[in-house]
Design goal:
The protein is mostly helical. It contains six helices and no strands. The radius of gyration is 19 Å and the shape is globular.
Length: 157
């Protein structure tokens, strides 16, 4: 393995593990916190988000976070979590900034400050959607072809 490939796989591992560790406590709080996932989901219609998506978001953060850490179904996990972060940034936090009288005259900087965390995590999830789980993941063990195997064509000489 080239040193460049090693760096790429190690970077993906770090991105997966750290991102998963960020999501897990948020998921635990939403699922097992006071009132459970029902309480979290019941507040979402005020943002125009169906209650059912609250359940999807909460369980995506908990289960998806765990699966990211171990590198199982990485692209699917990252897709769900990217959707959660997109909604957090653009549907929940951005409108709040424009209605906040304390945001000051420069609402652009206030919007960036309010959205920086979900946007950063959204970018990480987009990277994982594009890159997958990397060599150091369960995905690589499950979906890897045999070493050195080449796809064969039917009827090839």
């Amino acid at each position: 393995m080239s040193s460049n490939q090693w760096r790429t796989d190690t970077a993906i591992l770090a991105l997966r593990v750290v991102s998963g560790l960020i999501f897990i406590p948020h998921g635990v709080t939403k699922v097992f916190g006071s009132g459970g996932v029902a309480k979290f989901a019941s507040g979402l219609p005020s943002y125009g988000i169906p209650t059912a998506l609250g359940y999807v978001a909460a369980y995506s953060e908990l289960i998806g976070g765990i699966l990211l850490v171990i590198g199982l179904l990485t692209r699917i996990d990252a897709l769900f979590l990217a959707g959660t972060m997109f909604v957090a940034a653009f549907v929940v936090q951005l409108p709040d900034v424009f209605h906040d009288p304390d945001a000051g005259a420069n609402k652009v900087f206030a919007a960036i400050r309010a959205m920086e965390t979900p946007l950063s995590i959204l970018a990480a999830m987009l990277a994982l959607i594009l890159m997958g789980g990397g060599r150091y993941s369960i995905d690589a063990l499950i979906f890897r072809r045999g070493a050195g195997s080449q796809p064969t064509r039917e009827g090839a000489d």
